[in-house]
């Protein structure tokens, strides 16, 4: 019998040390215990005694384990723990339920390097019993960490397991609030909603903090309709809102663009006994500024100060950004100064906004001055500091200076992001250095930075300019396969490539694709199609495109009219060319050098030198200087010596 028992013990020990599969580590420490499926789905080994023979029963074994945990006698405890069953662990944790500190110490020991060789695993039931115990602590972080670990392996069944272990753990309903919060912290919005409705089903009223976490998550993930459904449910359950609830729901309204309702919500807060905080005002001010409604934002800014609410850095940053976006850069600078004068220290966001504003204005010198001021004040720049500066340097053709800034970023340990790469790729494409642009695209991929629609647009544009339309099409299809949703600019670049090749059939297919994708073609789209048709001499069809453009509410610009004038002039159909010219004038567009050159070229082609000469005098009188093309057209049109002598004063 002793031999048989010895064999059985060895068999059990071997089973425990090898049969359970590993799972992902717990986030509570560098080392980790592992989570197993619950015992219902994993019956485990036979019911032989999973503890040393010197113990007369489970109670004596568990008592020793309990005493060891409470007394922190980990070395003594480690001697017996190898191969312990999940069932015994559960019983041990239940015995420790009123000692949350001891349970936490035990869990930390399980994670320690010293015990890693024991490979002790907790199943879902063990985790939930531990959660019940440590939820008694004032600090909820340990319980939240355990719950997030449980959620990562078991998902919605965590709620049921908490229910099953609730009574034996002598727990409180606080654990369900913690579970709801853990779901929200993990970004698991569907699981959070399921927990919310399971609590309602079981008659457990969620606490306001847990509800606020859920509303915040829904707002962040732009599930605004669901946020209103949950808010209504809270109202029905008579869950009293807090100031945070109001702030979150005002944010939801701002995200929906319902700014008037957000303002009304601000007034309703007083009815419930809440005074708006700086966060409340900041939310609405930011909502206004992000939509270009800076007048309303400034009115609210004045109102908050009248009510004694002190603006903070977020308030000023929103206003500086909003004013800068609508071109009111000088006012943005004034707010920056008010921020400093009011004792609020401007941070990197405020500086980045002004740098971006001055770069957009083309004032690189002032933008660099703000960057230098940041350095003097010890404010660390970010990638958003460098991106607009690099972009403006490329716009001004200062490639070496742009590369110097890139080197500075590298020295500071600031990695380029997708925006940086897009700026560089676009810059090199426009410089005609497509080889460098494609090298940067490869580098981008090697660093696992995902290309965007802007990346592909620049590369497609470069390929089309090189008459490599098939390669451009390949890149376009690659973008689609990569999950990139093409925008108008990307499709326009490809349309331009096909139009330049004379493949108008494919160009119009892309126009139809654009409409199918619910993208609205713009004036660039139609101008490109018109130019392609005019190149083929199909000017009447181009005129039809102009009419279609206008019927869709897109106003033709001077490029649209010049394209048609040039098309008709090249064909010598000057009556039609001047007809478009008259229409152009009636729409408030003044003729440009291109307009006059096209008309003069057409008149000279049709041997109407006198009218060409009149136009030449007209353009000079309007302050438009003729160029080489103007004079070449005149010279080619005047075919006889007599005509040359007559017009030698030109």
Radius of gyration, taken over Cα atoms and rounded to an integer in Å? 36 Å
Largest sheet: 2 strands, parallel
Number of helices: 37
Strand order of the largest sheet: 1-2
End-to-end span in angstroms? Answer: 126 Å
Beta-strand percent range = under 5%
Question: Can you give the mean pLDDT?
Answer: 85
CA-based shape: elongated
Given as residue ranges, the uncertain stretches (5+ residues, pLDDT < 50) are 1-49
What structural category do the secondary elements indicate? mainly alpha
Name the helicity range. 55-70%
Beta strands, count: 2
Which descriptors would you attach to this protein?
Serine Threonine Protein Phosphatase 5, Tetratricopeptide repeat; disordered N terminus; 70% helix; two-stranded parallel sheet; 37 helices; elongated; 650 residues; mainly alpha
Give the helix/strand layout.
Layout: H1 2-18, E1 34-36, H2 58-70, H3 74-81, H4 86-95, H5 100-111, E2 121-123, H6 124-134, H7 141-154, H8 157-164, H9 166-169, H10 174-185, H11 189-201, H12 208-220, H13 224-236, H14 243-255, H15 259-271, H16 278-290, H17 294-306, H18 313-325, H19 329-341, H20 348-361, H21 364-376, H22 383-395, H23 399-412, H24 418-430, H25 434-446, H26 453-465, H27 469-481, H28 488-501, H29 504-516, H30 523-535, H31 539-551, H32 558-571, H33 574-586, H34 593-605, H35 609-621, H36 628-637, H37 641-646
Parallel strand pairs: 1-2
Helix pairs in contact: 2-4, 4-6, 6-7, 6-8, 7-10, 10-11, 10-12, 11-12, 12-13, 12-14, 13-14, 14-15, 14-16, 15-16, 16-17, 16-18, 17-18, 18-19, 18-20, 19-20, 20-21, 20-22, 21-22, 22-23, 22-24, 24-25, 24-26, 25-26, 26-27, 26-28, 27-28, 28-29, 28-30, 29-30, 30-31, 30-32, 31-32, 32-33, 32-34, 33-34, ...
């Amino acid at each position: 019998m002793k031999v048989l028992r010895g064999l059985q013990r060895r068999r059990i020990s071997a089973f425990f040390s090898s049969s359970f599969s590993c799972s992902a580590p717990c986030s509570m420490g560098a080392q980790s215990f592992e989570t197993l499926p619950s015992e219902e789905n994993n019956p485990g080994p036979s019911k032989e005694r999973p503890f040393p023979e010197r113990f007369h029963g489970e109670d004596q074994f568990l008592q020793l384990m309990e005493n060891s945990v409470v007394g922190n006698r980990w070395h003594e405890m480690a001697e017996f723990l190898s191969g312990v069953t999940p069932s015994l662990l559960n019983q041990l944790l239940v015995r420790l339920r009123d000692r949350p500190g001891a349970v936490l110490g035990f869990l930390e020991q399980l994670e320690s390097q010293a015990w890693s060789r024991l490979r002790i695993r907790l199943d879902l039931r063990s985790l939930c019993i531990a959660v019940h115990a440590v939820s008694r602590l004032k600090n909820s972080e340990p319980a939240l960490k355990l719950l997030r670990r449980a959620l990562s392996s078991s998902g919605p069944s965590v709620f049921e397991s908490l229910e099953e272990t609730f009574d034996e753990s002598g727990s409180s309903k606080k654990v369900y609030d913690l579970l709801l919060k853990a779901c929200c912290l993990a970004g698991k919005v569907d699981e959070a909603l399921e927990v919310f409705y399971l609590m309602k089903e079981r008659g457990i009223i969620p606490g306001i903090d847990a509800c606020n976490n859920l509303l915040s998550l829904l707002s962040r993930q732009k599930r605004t309709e669901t946020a209103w459904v949950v808010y209504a449910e809270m109202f029905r359950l008579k869950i009293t809102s807090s100031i945070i609830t109001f702030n979150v729901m005002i944010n939801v309204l701002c995200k929906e663009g319902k700014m008037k309702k957000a303002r009304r919500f601000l007034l309703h807060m007083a009815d419930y006994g809440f005074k708006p905080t700086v966060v409340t005002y900041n939310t609405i001010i930011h909502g206004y500024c992000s939509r270009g409604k800076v007048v309303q934002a400034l009115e609210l800014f004045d109102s908050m100060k009248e009510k004694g609410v002190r603006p903070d850095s977020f308030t000023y940053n929103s206003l500086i950004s909003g004013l800068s976006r609508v071109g009111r850069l000088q006012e943005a600078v004034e707010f920056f100064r008010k921020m400093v004068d009011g004792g609020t220290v401007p941070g990197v966001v405020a500086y980045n906004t002004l740098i971006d504003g001055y770069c957009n204005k083309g004032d690189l010198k002032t933008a660099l001055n703000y960057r230098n001021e940041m350095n003097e004040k010890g404010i660390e720049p970010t990638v958003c500091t460098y991106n607009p500066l690099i972009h403006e340097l490329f716009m001004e053709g200062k490639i070496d200076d742009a590369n110097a800034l890139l080197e500075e970023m590298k020295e500071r340990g600031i990695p380029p992001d997708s925006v940086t790469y897009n700026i560089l790729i676009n810059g090199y494409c426009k410089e005609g250095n497509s080889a460098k642009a494609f090298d940067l695209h490869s580098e981008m991929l090697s660093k696992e930075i995902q290309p965007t629609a802007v990346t592909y647009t620049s590369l497609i544009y470069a390929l089309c300019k090189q008459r490599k339309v098939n390669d451009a099409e390949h890149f376009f299809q690659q973008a689609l396969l990569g999950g990139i949703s093409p925008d108008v600019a990307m499709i326009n670049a490809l349309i331009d490539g096909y139009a330049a090749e004379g493949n108008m059939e494919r160009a119009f297919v892309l126009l139809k694709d654009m409409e199918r994708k619910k993208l609205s073609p713009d004036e660039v789209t139609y101008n490109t199609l018109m130019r392609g048709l005019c190149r083929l001499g199909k000017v009447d069809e181009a005129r039809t495109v102009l009419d279609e453009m206008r019927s869709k509410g897109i106003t033709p610009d001077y490029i649209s009219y010049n394209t048609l004038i040039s098309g008709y002039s090249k064909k010598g159909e000057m009556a039609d060319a001047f007809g478009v010219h008259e229409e152009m004038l009636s729409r408030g567009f003044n003729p440009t050098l291109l307009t006059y050159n096209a008309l003069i070229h057409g008149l000279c082609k049709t041997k109407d030198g006198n009218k060409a000469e009149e136009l030449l005098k007209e353009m000079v009188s309007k302050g438009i200087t003729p160029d080489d093309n103007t004079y070449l057209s005149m010279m080619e049109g005047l075919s006889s010596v007599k005509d040359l002598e007559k017009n030698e004063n030109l």
